[in-house]
């Protein structure tokens, strides 16, 4: 009799443990007419997704240069970290979408020549696809974005270009774009020798964070909740610090975190729980 009770108890414990785990799928795809290809993405579904009919807020989580849509799954331990945060109550249950920006070409921006419109793909194809396929709340209040390095740059750009779509943005160790117009010119001339100065200026003003921050209108200063995080030994520290200074001068509310660390997964795995908590606060308070 005791053995039977013990067996039943173990089955119950195992079932409860299983039920508390979310699910990650990292070999999904969306057809893209804009990029003329199938585009991969990964997704995290929270523990109660399979057993409920509710809709969920969403976090778009962008990878860095050299990784792809599986980076946050393999190295960022998104399943373990998100499950733990939800279980402990610091984070609300949410869906996390991780797109691939390293196939065909690398990066989250539209190409300066106009022949690789990745940003257009993100907003016109990827976002509508996943928000229709999965039970995602389709309102600004329940949508957030974050990413590391190159994906931190994508986070800045997407939230600054579309503040009407995101409640919170959390760039981590972000690539903030060229710091000067001359730097932008050097970068663009490498692959576009005949590029016009006016095109360089336009691209710089749209794809470098400091000029975009300086251009924010007064009535948009609180449109997005900002959480900016960069290690004190990170080679991108200067750009992130300049963004912080620009935001301070413009009186744009934001959280700015400098922690001990460098440009690596050890740092970003420690950042992710804070990101999940910060965006959850936004989901609740607006």
The first-level CATH class is given as Alpha Beta
- Globally, the shape reads globular
Poorly predicted tracts of residues: 5-18
Second rung of CATH, namely the architecture? 3-Layer(aba) Sandwich
Taken together, the total number of domains comes to 1
**SSE string:** HEEEHHEEEHEHEHHHEHEH
Q: What gap, in angstroms, lies between the N and C termini?
A: 54 Å
Describe the fold and architecture.
By secondary structure, this protein is an alpha/beta fold. It has one domain (22-285): Rossmann fold, CATH 3.40.50.1820. The protein contains ten helices and ten strands. It has helices spanning 2-19, 71-74, 78-88, 118-133, 150-161, 181-189, 197-207, 209-214, 237-250, 265-285, and strands at 23-32, 37-45, 58-62, 95-99, 102-103, 105-106, 143-148, 168-172, 225-231, 255-259. The strands form two sheets. An eight-stranded mixed β-sheet has the order 1-2-4-3-7-8-9-10, sandwiched between helices. A hairpin with a 4-residue loop joins β1 (23-32) and β2 (37-45). α3 crosses α10 and α6 (181-189) crosses α7 (197-207). The longest helix is centred in the last third of the chain and has 21 residues, at 265-285. The N and C termini lie far apart (54 Å). Mean pLDDT is 91; it is low at 5-18.
Give a short summary of the structure.
This protein has 286 residues and is of the alpha/beta class.
